[in-house]
Every structure is written in C-alpha cells, then in structure tokens.
Amino acid sequence: MSRPPVTPVHRLTVLYDADCPLCVHLRHWLLRQRRLVPLDLVPAASQEARRRFPGLDHESTLREITVIGDRGQAYRSTSAWIVCLWALAEHRPKAHWLATPAGQPFARATVLAAAKWREALKGGGPACEDGRCEVPGTPG
Predict the structure, then answer these.
(1) Which residue among 6, 9, 43, 48 has its CA within the 20 to 30 Å range from the CA of 66?
(2) What's the CA gap between 90 and 124, in Å, rounded?
(3) What angle in degrees, to the nearest 10, is found between the helix axes of 77-86 and 104-121?
C-alpha cells in the first residue's frame, strides 16, 4: 500500500505591497480562491510582517512579491507567484507546469509584465502607513 504524498508546506504567508492597486487586487483574488494550503496575506514591511519575520529584508519585499513557508522557505518573484498558484485548488496543475523548463519563460514574462504595470501604477495611490492601506472595497 502506498503512502499519500507529504506536503512540504502547510501554510504560506504572502507579503504584498498594500500601496499597490494591482497587488491589492491580486490579494482579493487570492482570498476568493479555494485553497489547498492556507494563505496568510500580510502587507509587506508592515509591523505585522516585521514581527513575524524579524530577520527578513523588509524593504526588498516592497519591490517584489515574497512568500514565506511555514518551515522558513522563502520564495521571491516568479517562484513566489508559482507557489501562490500551487496553494490554490484550481491552479495547482498550472503551477506545476509553470515550474517546468517549458513553463518558466511564460511565468517570468508574466511577472515582468506585472512588475512593469505595477511601477506605472505606483505613486498614484494613497500613502500607506504601517501597511494598513488598501484600495477601497471588500473582496468579492
């Protein structure tokens, strides 16, 4: 009898830029998805992020998405997006493909396009104090 596969990650913390409309939109999208792995969505460089991860370079988490696993794994940029998709029931197969040599160029191009769009939007939103600002509205 074969044993079921062991999930190496049981919970993920997604550090997102709460001063970025695109990032907040994606946060809300993640909250609406059925998750196979629980996601904690915490504003990057906030007091909460600093409390949870005191040894992390928090300024860098404002420049690129960072995801931290419950065993200390750190994912950044393309890998962070892939692991977020991996945590979602409907998107895990796509995450597996994006992690392959065939899928990596597509994943990287998507992250670069999102970063370019994010930078174009940045600065037009409200100031963010203690990581508590968001685009108005609730997930749904």
Answers:
(1) 6
(2) 33
(3) 110
